[in-house]
Design goal:
The protein is mostly beta strands.
């Protein structure tokens, strides 16, 4: 009997061990310093992108192979490199891109960088002196690209790019391919003689953009449209090819981004949600590895706009279309707790948040794994007038995440602008949260009426400003159904102006005659974009004369 019980216990333990879920593979942050959005390309374990050098105001071509990041030994560029990794006629890996001699994408020619010899050369065979080339790609002896053709229209309506292909070993000129509808090319991919082109156009009578994925052949013939979308449903970007499919992204402002697969035999389109704010830059190599660029929010072409930290280049592990679970890069939520509104100076505010790794399978959310023992630093934001975005500075306030991934930081004296974000320090990888709120903090104002004078105080100090003494002229109240709280709206008229004293903390105003009524002292709205420490607010009401 004991032997039977022991055997049953061992079988139970073995079953439990088999039932233990396998730890999901985690996406890796390859680079967390992408200050400007950039095209990316991947091939045979190598990934290429453009790094913005803020000091030089130039983009540098960056290559990463085997975990090692290097900068290509070439001059920088005024615009991100439209880079494409491919092979030359001898099968060696090369990077293709264009350089422009003049601003506005003028005087652009095709260049090739040999990764083995670290040398750059201009491809004269396809660089016409009076044409502007873009999006070159090479596969052995074949080189594909587009030439910009401008119709004189406005915006994307004025772009009518024409695709070309050239067999480099042949003396024949570049072959003009099927152009399709007038549009601007936003990406191009080449595999063998198969070309995949992504275009973006805006029909003259429409208010939205049309994004198309087209299949062409370097041998010529009619092109075939593989997919179409609009700016209302998301734009396509960054095509990569395998033997049987095209892989790319779909993204857009206010839209959930997705990884996309288009079957070349059936044109069937499959999508997997990214569960991240993908800027549109993605790449997939022949080994099935994915790279993608994420931001703290949708920022279009500038990863520094509206973002507290730069964008990140991430390697997906495993393939998003596989059945394996993926642990995404950590994400952070942030919120404010300040009691009843409006928030008045001197009332404590608590900033809190939660740090976790989303776990997904084929794009479906599975669970969130909290990240414990991480150090979170609070960032204070400031609203800027030009450009219209936020600037963030680090504070000395930090907190550690608990076992549930939660953290909180108390602010006994909150600033005038309640604009905050947060960033982790050290491990795990740097992550960030979008701003918690754009609410403001009101100044604490008092008002007293004695005889024929008004007096009061303002905190914090607001030197050089004036307080308006106002009387209530109208009150309108309503009670939303069913039995909702009564909401009142007041209207006031200014009866006196009282400059603050030199310290900016007190005021006095005399009046020849104070009539009965309900009075208040108001500090008018100020431009917080110009002065982040400018407060506004209103004192509690004071009843005069019953």
């Amino acid at each position: 009997m004991r032997r039977g019980l022991l055997l049953a216990l061992l079988l139970t333990l073995a079953a439990g061990a088999c039932a233990t879920p396998t730890l999901a593979l985690a996406d890796d942050v390859v680079a967390d310093d992408i200050a400007r959005d950039t095209p990316i390309s991947a091939r045979d374990g190598v990934v290429a992108w453009s790094h913005f050098d803020a000091a030089a105001r130039r983009y540098r071509l960056v290559l990463r192979r085997g975990g090692r990041r290097t900068q290509a030994k070439i001059a920088g560029s005024r615009k991100p490199f439209d880079v494409s990794l491919g092979t030359d006629r001898r099968g060696r890996m090369v990077a293709l891109y264009t350089r422009c001699r003049r601003a506005g994408e003028r005087g652009c020619d095709v260049y090739r960088y040999d990764l083995a010899t670290t040398t750059e050369e201009r491809i004269d065979a396809v660089s016409a002196p009076d044409e502007d080339e873009a999006w070159p790609a090479q596969s052995g002896d074949v080189l594909a690209f587009v030439r910009r053709r401008r119709t004189g229209g406005r915006g994307l309506v004025g772009d009518c790019d024409v695709p070309f292909a050239r067999r480099l070993s042949s003396p024949a000129p570049s072959r003009r391919l099927d152009r399709g509808a007038c549009a601007r090319t936003t990406a191009l991919s080449l595999r063998g003689s198969r070309i995949v082109q992504v275009t973006l156009g805006s029909p003259p009578v429409q208010t939205y953009y049309i994004s198309r994925v087209r299949r062409l052949s370097a041998r010529g013939g009619h092109g075939r449209e593989l997919a179409r979308s609009t700016s209302r449903t998301g734009l396509f970007g960054s095509p990569s090819q395998s033997a049987k499919a095209v892989w790319l992204s779909r993204h857009g402002f206010g839209l959930a981004s997705a990884f996309v697969r288009i079957d070349l035999a059936t044109n069937k389109r499959s999508e997997v949600p990214t569960h991240a704010t993908v800027t549109g830059a993605v790449a997939r190599d022949e080994r099935g590895a994915w790279w993608y660029v994420t931001a703290s929010r949708f920022v279009e072409r500038d990863c520094s706009g509206w973002a507290p930290t730069p964008c990140r280049l991430i390697r997906a592990s495993p393939d998003p279309f596989s059945d394996a679970e993926r642990r995404l890069a950590p994400t952070m939520r942030i919120s404010l707790s300040a009691g009843p509104e409006p928030v008045v100076f001197g009332v404590p505010v608590t900033v809190s948040g939660e740090l976790a790794r989303p776990v997904v399978r084929r794009g479906a959310f599975v669970r969130a794994e909290p990240v414990a023992n991480a150090t979170v630093r609070l960032l204070r934001g400031r609203l800027l007038a030009k450009p219209r975005r936020e600037a963030y500075t680090s504070t000395s306030l930090t907190a550690a995440t608990g076992a549930d991934g939660r953290w909180s930081i108390a602010l006994p004296v909150p600033p005038a602008q309640l604009v905050f974000s947060a960033v982790t320090e050290g491990e795990p990888e740097r992550t960030f949260a979008i701003r918690g709120t754009a609410a403001g903090v009101h100044a604490a104002i008092t008002l007293a009426v004695a005889g024929n004078s008004f007096s009061g105080t303002v905190a914090p100090a607001q030197p050089g400003r004036s307080v308006r003494i106002q009387i209530r002229t109208k009150r309108t109240c309503s009670t939303p159904p069913p039995n909702g709280p009564t909401i009142c709206t007041d209207e006031y008229a200014t009866v006196a102006r009282a400059p603050l004293d030199a310290a900016g903390t007190a005021f006095v105003a005399a009046s020849a005659r104070i009539v009965p009524g309900v009075y208040t002292a108001a500090l008018p709205l100020a431009d917080q974009r110009a002065d982040p420490d400018a407060y506004s607010g209103r004192s509690p009401e004071v009843v005069v004369g019953g």
